[in-house]
Amino acid sequence: MTQSSHAKFDCFRADEYGHQARIALAGYDACHELSACILSASLRSMGEARVLVVGAGGTGGEIIAAARLEPMWKFFAIDPSEPMLALAEGHIGAAGLQERVAFIRGELADLPNRPEFDAAIMIGVLHHIPTEAGKADILARLSERLRPGAPLVLAGNYRPYASEPLLLAAWGNRWRMHGAGPDEIEAKLAKIMNGAVPPETEEKVETLLSDAGFDKPRRFFASLFWGAWHTRKRPIC
Questions:
Q1: Which residue range is the domain that position 174 belongs to?
Q2: Is the pLDDT assigned to residue 167 strictly greater than 70?
Q3: Contact at 8 Å (CB) between 119 and 39?
């Protein structure tokens, strides 16, 4: 994320993140668990692996799920938001997995520009980057740090929210189901509409990945506006 895109993830948002994320994304934990399963299946012939986790701040769910499934993997968790990274570190520590995770406060540009990672996970990041150029940049920087053929699990919202009024109304009902009143729901949806810029279509996600050097992605999870895809960095010919 850029400095501007991560600034909204302050201490207050970190405190409420886990609860709100599980309301906003129906299937939050399932997405993280399936991401771990997909990545494990992609690396089935590899015992030890170095896994880069981009935008790792928050619940640490993707790391916890993958670390429990694959005890020989080591994770490199990078996030520019100090409160969110600290939150993830706390959850991962509580799970007893902290010795297998290196926590890095910063952006991909701060990492050495060489292909030293065997796989990557980037969940809930792309739609928070406001410009298409910014989205392309983070995927290009990620690709540069992956070995040829390395798998990537990418997940986040896609499609303009206003383009799918039925899904948007159902999204509001997620909060109503959890006790929110009309004014709170309206405020939450307004915050969503103004706070993120998802890729316009699934085809746009494919184009962004292709331009960054990845194969055509396969979607393996969906929930309202959310999608999760598996792809690989194209081998060097």
A1: 162-196
A2: yes
A3: yes
Phi, then psi, of 79 in degrees rounded to 5: -160, 140
**H helix runs in the chain, sequence order:** 3-6, 11-24, 28-42, 61-69, 82-94, 132-144, 165-177, 182-195, 202-211
The pTM score is: 0.92
Q: What's the CA angle centered on 3, arms 189 and 24, to 5 degrees?
A: 25
What is the dihedral sign for C-alpha 191, 161, 228, 202?
Answer: negative
∠ Cα 209 76 114 (to 5°): 60
Helix, strand, coil distribution of the chain in percent, nearest 5:
50, 20, 30
* Buried b / exposed e along 164-198 (16+ C-beta atoms within 10 A): eeeebeebbebbeeeebeeeebeebbeebeeebbb
- Hunting for tokens 């406060």 — which residue is that? 105
Alpha carbons 111 and 98: distance in angstroms, whole number: 20
Q: Tell me the CATH number at 124.
A: 3.40.50.150
Inter-CA distances, 125 with 46, 94, 154, 171, Å: 27, 24, 9, 19
User: What pLDDT shows up at residue 11?
Assistant: 47
What total of structural domains would you count in the chain? 2
User: Are 216 and 187 found together in one domain?
Assistant: no
